[in-house]
Amino acid sequence: MNPSSPRGRLRDALLRVGEGGDVDEADLGSAVATALRELASETLGERSRVDLVTVGAEDHPWGRSLGLRLADYDVGLWDVLWHADESDLPPQVQESCPTLNQEEWQAVLLVSKLIFTGLQSESEPVHADAGRHQRATPRPPRSAARERFCLALAAISDRPDLHQDELTAQLRAALLDFASETPDNKEAAQRIAVLHTGEPWKGPRLCLSRSGLALAKVALSADGCPVPSRVWQELPDLTHDEWNAVVHVVGLTLMAFEADPTRDAA
Question: Which terminus, N or C, of the chain has the lesser number of Cβ atoms within 10 Å?
Answer without folding.
Answer: C
